[in-house]
Design goal:
The protein is α/β, with parallel strands linked by helices. It has helices at residues 19-26, 35-40, 56-65, 85-93, 106-114, 153-163, 232-242, 259-266, 280-292, 326-335, 349-362, and strands at residues 3-9, 30-33, 48-51, 71-77, 98-101, 122-125, 143-147, 170-175, 183-188, 201-206, 249-253, 272-276, 299-302, 317-320, 341-346, 365-369, 372-377, 380-385, 389-395. The strands form 4 sheets. Strands 13-12-11-14-15-19-16 form a 7-stranded mixed sheet, sandwiched between helices. The chain starts with a strand and ends in a 9-residue tail after the last strand.
């Protein structure tokens, strides 16, 4: 079986490599890397140096499947196991077939230049995610290090900060860290110079703006909606009932404006949502809301239920919102793995009865949620009740796996 040696290399190239890294590359028969990385070892390696072709993912897959070389060397930027190709290779072939030789990561180099405590700094990658991925992390006093996709990323990040009320945020771009062309430029988000930076850069954001929280219950006004919106108080209770957790997948059935799935995503940095919405205009609205609030890259839109269930990955959690009926409920329940959680909200009497029946068949809990808000009454105020909501929640275990 082919073994893989993944060597981290910085912008300083061969001089910055450790003795162990140099020895590994000197003995290499073939070394793969980006065109920039390959150029850094030119003249120092006797074996073949092969730049990745585009798309790199296809080329890497072919290399991992090839059995002609007993050992294959691969170059990575900085620390191969920090948002790097080392993780991809280990996941593909197994830890036993991979040797990793690390170099300092770009965030380590940036923290050293800035004098920031890396343990208290939030790191976000926009290499595979859009710049909007920083939005849930923004908060007064928060320090962010953002891995850039290219030279246009700093300007996009500055514009996002300004759009979300963080125009006073300090923006520092560190270009070509560790290399001969290392440079640094600083400013505020609202006054940022939009000229492109060097393609190899990392952005430091010293956030100044409103306080922020990942807790559910954003103001209703942050959502675009045609009226199909779970209101703030009920939304906070519902997302809490759905228990967001790392690495989980939520089905948001009858997404409406997408608020439940969006706030579930905001509560976890790596959760995913499949949002089922049959109405095309509402589906567009879900996408707009998710992108603006920084979670669009972790949300997938699907169509009418229950038909669309078949093509979706199995959920860890299910939320039943608008349009639930017996068939939809039972199909979602069957798709849910043992230990999975299902939560349904109902306003209409018919849907409430559906959940009462589900409670009798499948167990769980029933909760009636009533909310009243103060509103004008002549020259004074009175409590105005919203329509009550029945919420059913159940965990699927071996005793409740009924094939309905």
């Amino acid at each position: 079986m082919t073994r893989f040696v993944v060597v981290g290399i910085g912008a300083d190239g061969w001089p910055g490599l450790s003795g162990r890294a140099r020895d590994a590359l000197a003995d290499a028969a073939v070394v793969y890397g980006s065109a920039r990385q390959v150029s850094l070892i030119d003249g120092h390696v006797a074996g073949r140096a092969v730049p990745w072709t585009s798309p790199m993912s296809d080329h890497l897959r072919d290399v991992l499947a090839d059995r002609t070389e007993p050992v294959v060397h691969v170059l990575a930027s900085g620390d191969p196991m920090f948002h790097g190709i080392g993780t991809t290779i280990v996941n593909a072939v197994g830890r036993d077939r991979v040797t990793v030789i690390s170099a300092p990561s770009s965030v380590s180099l940036a923290a050293a230049e800035l004098g920031w405590d890396l343990a208290t700094t939030v790191v976000v990658s926009t290499v595979t995610a859009p710049p909007e991925a920083v939005v849930p992390e923004l908060g007064d006093g928060v320090r962010l290090l953002v891995l850039s996709r290219d030279g246009s990323t700093p300007a996009a990040l500055a514009a996002l900060c300004d759009d979300h009320g963080f125009g006073r945020t300090g923006v520092t771009v560190l270009e070509n860290l560790g290399g001969g062309g290392q440079a640094m430029r600083s400013g505020t988000a609202s006054e940022w110079d939009r000229t492109p930076c060097a393609p190899l850069n990392i952005v430091a954001l010293d956030c100044r703006g409103p306080s922020a929280s990942r807790a559910p219950g954003l103001p209703d006004g942050v959502y675009v909606s045609d009226g199909q919106l779970t209101k703030q108080t009920v939304r906070a209770l519902t997302v809490s009932a759905l228990r967001p957790a790392a690495g989980q997948l939520l089905w948001d059935v009858g997404a409406g404006s997408g608020s439940i799935g969006i706030e579930w995503l905001r509560a976890t940095r790596d959760g995913r949502v499949v949002a089922f919405e049959a109405d095309r205009d509402r589906a567009v609205t879900v996408r707009r809301n998710a992108e603006r609030l920084g979670v669009g890259h972790r949300l997938t839109l699907a169509g009418s239920v229950p038909q669309a269930f078949a093509a979706a990955p199995s959920p860890d959690t299910v939320f039943l919102g608008g349009g639930a009926d017996r068939t939809v409920l039972d199909d979602a329940w069957r798709a849910l793995a043992p230990g999975g959680l299902i939560v349904g909200n109902a306003v209409a009497i018919e849907t409430q009865q559906l959940f009462v029946d589900a409670h009798a068949r499948l167990g769980g809990s029933l909760t009636r949620i009533s909310v009243e808000r103060a509103a004008p009454l002549g020259t004074m105020s009175a409590w105005r009740p919203a329509l009550p909501i029945i919420q059913w929640a159940a965990v699927k275990d071996a005793a409740t796996q009924e094939d309905s």
